[in-house]
Amino acid sequence: MAELSKFLETPDVLKPYLKARATRLGLMCLIAAALVLVVDQASKAWVLYGLRLPLYGQVKILPFFSITMVRNLSMSFGLLPAGDWTRWLLTLFQGLAGAALILAAARARHALVGIALAMIAGGAIGNGLDRIRFGSVVDFLDFSGLWFPWVFNVADSAICIGVALLAWHLIRYDAGPAEAQS
Protein backbone atom coordinates (compact mmCIF):
# COMPACT_ATOMS: atom_id res chain seq x y z
CA MET A 1 0.00 0.00 0.00
CA ALA A 2 2.89 2.37 0.72
CA GLU A 3 4.20 1.82 -2.81
CA LEU A 4 0.81 2.80 -4.26
CA SER A 5 0.64 6.02 -2.22
CA LYS A 6 4.21 6.84 -3.27
CA PHE A 7 3.24 6.20 -6.92
CA LEU A 8 0.21 8.51 -6.64
CA GLU A 9 2.14 11.43 -5.12
CA THR A 10 2.55 14.61 -7.12
CA PRO A 11 5.86 14.51 -9.03
CA ASP A 12 8.48 16.77 -7.43
CA VAL A 13 8.90 18.77 -10.63
CA LEU A 14 5.22 19.87 -10.43
CA LYS A 15 5.02 20.54 -6.66
CA PRO A 16 6.12 24.20 -6.89
CA TYR A 17 3.26 24.88 -9.31
CA LEU A 18 0.42 23.22 -7.42
CA LYS A 19 -1.47 24.12 -4.26
CA ALA A 20 -3.23 21.69 -1.97
CA ARG A 21 -6.67 22.98 -3.00
CA ALA A 22 -8.32 24.17 -6.18
CA THR A 23 -7.53 27.75 -7.15
CA ARG A 24 -9.50 30.28 -9.21
CA LEU A 25 -6.95 29.76 -11.97
CA GLY A 26 -7.42 26.02 -11.55
CA LEU A 27 -11.16 26.34 -12.07
CA MET A 28 -10.51 28.25 -15.30
CA CYS A 29 -8.17 25.43 -16.33
CA LEU A 30 -10.99 22.94 -15.74
CA ILE A 31 -13.12 24.98 -18.12
CA ALA A 32 -10.27 24.80 -20.67
CA ALA A 33 -10.13 21.01 -20.28
CA ALA A 34 -13.89 20.80 -20.78
CA LEU A 35 -13.63 22.99 -23.89
CA VAL A 36 -10.96 20.72 -25.37
CA LEU A 37 -13.16 17.72 -24.66
CA VAL A 38 -16.28 19.34 -26.17
CA VAL A 39 -14.50 20.56 -29.32
CA ASP A 40 -12.86 17.16 -29.76
CA GLN A 41 -16.08 15.19 -29.38
CA ALA A 42 -18.08 17.67 -31.51
CA SER A 43 -15.52 17.48 -34.33
CA LYS A 44 -15.63 13.69 -34.24
CA ALA A 45 -19.44 13.70 -34.28
CA TRP A 46 -19.37 16.03 -37.29
CA VAL A 47 -16.93 13.75 -39.11
CA LEU A 48 -18.88 10.58 -38.31
CA TYR A 49 -22.47 11.78 -38.61
CA GLY A 50 -22.40 15.14 -40.42
CA LEU A 51 -19.90 14.36 -43.16
CA ARG A 52 -20.61 10.63 -42.88
CA LEU A 53 -16.92 10.13 -43.49
CA PRO A 54 -17.01 6.37 -42.84
CA LEU A 55 -19.00 6.10 -46.13
CA TYR A 56 -16.67 8.29 -48.19
CA GLY A 57 -13.30 7.68 -46.57
CA GLN A 58 -11.75 11.00 -47.57
CA VAL A 59 -12.74 14.55 -48.45
CA LYS A 60 -10.03 16.61 -50.17
CA ILE A 61 -10.07 20.19 -48.86
CA LEU A 62 -6.76 21.65 -50.07
CA PRO A 63 -3.87 20.16 -52.03
CA PHE A 64 -2.06 19.48 -48.75
CA PHE A 65 -5.04 18.83 -46.44
CA SER A 66 -7.79 16.23 -46.43
CA ILE A 67 -10.32 14.96 -43.94
CA THR A 68 -9.61 11.25 -43.95
CA MET A 69 -11.39 8.59 -41.89
CA VAL A 70 -8.96 6.51 -39.83
CA ARG A 71 -9.86 4.34 -36.86
CA ASN A 72 -6.83 4.01 -34.61
CA LEU A 73 -7.04 0.66 -32.84
CA SER A 74 -3.67 1.04 -31.15
CA MET A 75 -1.75 4.06 -29.92
CA SER A 76 0.44 6.69 -31.57
CA PHE A 77 2.60 5.33 -34.36
CA GLY A 78 1.15 1.83 -33.81
CA LEU A 79 3.44 1.21 -30.83
CA LEU A 80 1.13 -1.47 -29.40
CA PRO A 81 -0.51 -4.26 -31.35
CA ALA A 82 -4.23 -3.74 -31.96
CA GLY A 83 -6.51 -5.90 -29.87
CA ASP A 84 -9.20 -5.91 -27.23
CA TRP A 85 -6.69 -5.90 -24.36
CA THR A 86 -4.96 -2.90 -25.95
CA ARG A 87 -8.25 -1.02 -26.15
CA TRP A 88 -9.05 -1.46 -22.46
CA LEU A 89 -5.46 -0.97 -21.27
CA LEU A 90 -5.23 2.34 -23.14
CA THR A 91 -8.72 3.37 -21.96
CA LEU A 92 -7.73 2.71 -18.35
CA PHE A 93 -4.46 4.61 -18.77
CA GLN A 94 -6.17 7.57 -20.46
CA GLY A 95 -8.85 7.71 -17.77
CA LEU A 96 -6.38 7.60 -14.89
CA ALA A 97 -4.00 10.07 -16.54
CA GLY A 98 -6.88 12.40 -17.40
CA ALA A 99 -8.19 12.30 -13.82
CA ALA A 100 -4.74 12.95 -12.33
CA LEU A 101 -4.13 15.82 -14.74
CA ILE A 102 -7.55 17.33 -14.01
CA LEU A 103 -6.72 17.32 -10.29
CA ALA A 104 -3.34 18.89 -10.97
CA ALA A 105 -4.85 21.53 -13.30
CA ALA A 106 -7.45 22.41 -10.66
CA ARG A 107 -4.64 23.20 -8.21
CA ALA A 108 -2.48 25.13 -10.68
CA ARG A 109 -0.80 28.32 -9.53
CA HIS A 110 0.85 29.14 -12.84
CA ALA A 111 -1.36 29.79 -15.88
CA LEU A 112 0.84 28.10 -18.48
CA VAL A 113 1.21 24.95 -16.38
CA GLY A 114 -2.53 24.81 -15.68
CA ILE A 115 -3.52 25.28 -19.32
CA ALA A 116 -0.94 22.71 -20.45
CA LEU A 117 -2.23 20.14 -17.96
CA ALA A 118 -5.84 20.92 -18.90
CA MET A 119 -5.13 20.47 -22.62
CA ILE A 120 -3.43 17.12 -22.03
CA ALA A 121 -6.27 15.99 -19.74
CA GLY A 122 -9.02 17.04 -22.16
CA GLY A 123 -7.28 15.27 -25.03
CA ALA A 124 -6.63 12.09 -23.06
CA ILE A 125 -10.22 11.90 -21.87
CA GLY A 126 -11.53 12.61 -25.40
CA ASN A 127 -9.52 9.76 -26.91
CA GLY A 128 -10.48 7.50 -24.01
CA LEU A 129 -14.16 8.20 -24.64
CA ASP A 130 -13.64 7.20 -28.28
CA ARG A 131 -12.20 3.86 -27.21
CA ILE A 132 -15.19 3.23 -24.96
CA ARG A 133 -17.82 4.36 -27.49
CA PHE A 134 -16.33 3.15 -30.78
CA GLY A 135 -13.62 0.65 -29.83
CA SER A 136 -11.01 2.88 -31.47
CA VAL A 137 -9.93 6.51 -31.69
CA VAL A 138 -11.45 8.50 -34.55
CA ASP A 139 -8.68 10.32 -36.45
CA PHE A 140 -9.41 12.55 -39.43
CA LEU A 141 -6.99 15.49 -39.84
CA ASP A 142 -4.72 14.50 -42.72
CA PHE A 143 -1.81 16.72 -43.75
CA SER A 144 -0.10 14.07 -45.88
CA GLY A 145 0.23 16.66 -48.66
CA LEU A 146 2.85 18.28 -46.44
CA TRP A 147 4.69 14.96 -46.10
CA PHE A 148 3.24 14.43 -42.62
CA PRO A 149 2.14 10.79 -42.80
CA TRP A 150 0.01 10.57 -39.65
CA VAL A 151 -3.71 11.28 -39.40
CA PHE A 152 -4.75 12.80 -36.08
CA ASN A 153 -7.61 14.57 -34.29
CA VAL A 154 -8.31 17.57 -32.03
CA ALA A 155 -7.50 15.58 -28.88
CA ASP A 156 -4.11 14.55 -30.27
CA SER A 157 -3.39 18.18 -31.14
CA ALA A 158 -4.35 19.35 -27.64
CA ILE A 159 -2.12 16.69 -26.05
CA CYS A 160 0.86 17.64 -28.23
CA ILE A 161 0.39 21.38 -27.65
CA GLY A 162 -0.06 20.81 -23.89
CA VAL A 163 3.11 18.71 -23.67
CA ALA A 164 5.05 21.32 -25.67
CA LEU A 165 3.80 24.15 -23.43
CA LEU A 166 4.66 22.20 -20.30
CA ALA A 167 8.14 21.33 -21.61
CA TRP A 168 8.73 24.94 -22.67
CA HIS A 169 7.69 26.20 -19.25
CA LEU A 170 9.85 23.70 -17.39
CA ILE A 171 12.87 24.47 -19.59
CA ARG A 172 12.32 28.21 -19.43
CA TYR A 173 11.90 28.33 -15.68
CA ASP A 174 14.25 25.46 -14.86
CA ALA A 175 11.57 24.01 -12.54
CA GLY A 176 12.14 26.69 -9.90
CA PRO A 177 9.50 27.78 -7.39
CA ALA A 178 6.45 29.46 -8.95
CA GLU A 179 6.60 32.44 -6.55
CA ALA A 180 10.08 33.40 -7.75
CA GLN A 181 8.96 33.38 -11.39
CA SER A 182 6.11 35.86 -11.25
Rg (CA only): 18 Å
Mean pLDDT: 84
Number of DSSP E strands: 4
The low-confidence runs, each spanning 5 or more residues with pLDDT under 50, are none
Report the helical percentage: 55-70%
Domain count, please report it: 1
Which geometry do the CA atoms define?
Answer: globular
Please state how the strands of the largest beta sheet are arranged side by side: 1-2-3-4
Strand-residue fraction?
Answer: 5-15%
Structural class assignment = alpha+beta
Care to describe what's here?
The chain has one domain. The longest helix has 27 residues, at 24-50. 57% of the residues lie in helices and 12% in strands. The chain is globular, with a radius of gyration of 18 Å. It has a four-stranded antiparallel beta sheet. The chain has helices spanning 2-7, 24-50, 53-56, 84-106, 111-134, 154-173, and strands at residues 58-62, 65-72, 137-142, 151-152. By secondary structure, it is α+β, with helices and mostly antiparallel strands. Strand 1 (58-62) and strand 2 form a beta hairpin.
